């Protein structure tokens, strides 16, 4: 990962994570609103439901040693540690996130089960065959080399272990290349959210096959999660959020002002919520 992009991502999450936790809580990912996206539910419950639906979809019923790639402030990590009574290691580029996740583990009496550190997902500091579950929930979009990222996830996965990856994608382009307007829309999203680029779900599946992953499955859950952005936009219009944005700085303000980019991306079918799982 280039040092410039790393620094941009670090600064973005260093600045914005405390505000997100204040407004939304510990889960820094989409919520699940039913297959058709029409279920009404409390926003944080929707985020927990996404975790549970992913586990159900991937048929993961137990895990002993888990890697959470792009762990945020430990939302998924601590949830999985408790659910499976497992050891969880979380990595992030943000020292602020790693520190807060460590503090949250202590608050939950999970310090013995959960460890958080600053590390590059494209060059992980772990031995081969270390984890029986590699969990990447909305971090792949930040990776400048998608193949290298998936190679690293595969490398640290134990034989028989499972990779679950969920990431922002653009629509498949087999039948129609991206238009100039679509490319401009994506470039605006990249700039705001510190993304190098995104690819389509079929492209991720092709990478997975090149790694010799077994039992590869993929799914598009765009309809199920699309309402999330309307809820995020609604939550931004209160004084606590506005004051928090001001304190967090221009990068966070710009991201908040650009929430509509993601909503419109889902509405047009350009942005897709891609799932992939496989075993080693």
Automatic annotation (TrEMBL):
| Any GO BP annotation | methylation
Q: What are the start and end residues of every segment in region (SAM motif I)? A: 66-75
GO MF: S-adenosylmethionine-dependent methyltransferase activity
What is the top-level taxon of the source organism?
Bacteria
Keywords annotated in UniProt: Methyltransferase, S-adenosyl-L-methionine, Transferase
Indicate the segments forming the Methyltransferase type domain, all copies. 67-165
PROSITE patterns, A to Z: SAM_GTMT
Identify the InterPro entries for this entry. Erg6_SMT_methyltransf, Methyltransf_11, PiNMT-like, SAM-dependent_MTases_sf
Keyword Oxidoreductase among UniProt keywords: no
Q: Which SUPFAM superfamilies match?
A: S-adenosyl-L-methionine-dependent methyltransferases
**Similarity remark:** Belongs to the class I-like SAM-binding methyltransferase superfamily. gTMT family.
Official protein name in the record: Delta(24)-sterol C-methyltransferase
**Species name:** Aliterella atlantica CENA595
Q: What is the lineage of its organism?
A: Bacteria, Bacillati, Cyanobacteriota, Cyanophyceae, Chroococcidiopsidales
């Amino acid at each position: 990962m280039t040092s410039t992009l790393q620094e941009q991502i670090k600064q973005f999450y260093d600045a914005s994570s405390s505000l997100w936790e204040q407004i939304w809580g510990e889960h820094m990912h989409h919520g699940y609103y039913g297959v058709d996206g029409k279920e009404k539910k409390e926003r944080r419950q929707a985020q927990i439901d996404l975790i549970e639906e992913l586990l159900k979809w991937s048929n993961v019923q137990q895990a002993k040693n888990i890697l959470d790639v792009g762990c945020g402030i430990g939302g998924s990590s601590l949830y999985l540690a408790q659910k499976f009574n497992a050891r969880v290691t979380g990595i992030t580029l943000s020292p602020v996130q790693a520190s807060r996740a460590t503090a949250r583990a202590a608050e939950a009496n999970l310090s013995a089960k959960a460890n958080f550190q600053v590390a590059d997902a494209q060059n992980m500091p772990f031995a081969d065959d270390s984890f029986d579950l590699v969990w990447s929930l909305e971090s792949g979009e930040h990776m400048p080399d998608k193949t290298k990222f998936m190679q690293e996830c595969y490398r640290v996965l134990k034989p028989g272990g499972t990779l679950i990856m969920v990431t922002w994608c653009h629509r498949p382009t087999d039948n129609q290349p991206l238009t100039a307007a679509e490319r401009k829309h994506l470039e605006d999203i990249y700039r705001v959210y510190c993304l190098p680029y995104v690819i389509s779900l079929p492209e991720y599946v092709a990478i997975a096959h090149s790694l010799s992953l077994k039992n590869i499955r993929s799914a598009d859950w765009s309809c199920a999660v699309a309402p999330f952005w309307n809820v995020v936009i609604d939550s931004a219009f209160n004084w606590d959020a506005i004051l928090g944005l001001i304190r967090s700085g221009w990068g966070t303000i710009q991201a908040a002002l650009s929430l509509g980019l993601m909503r419109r991306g889902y509405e047009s079918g350009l942005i897709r919520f891609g799932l992939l799982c496989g075993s080693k």
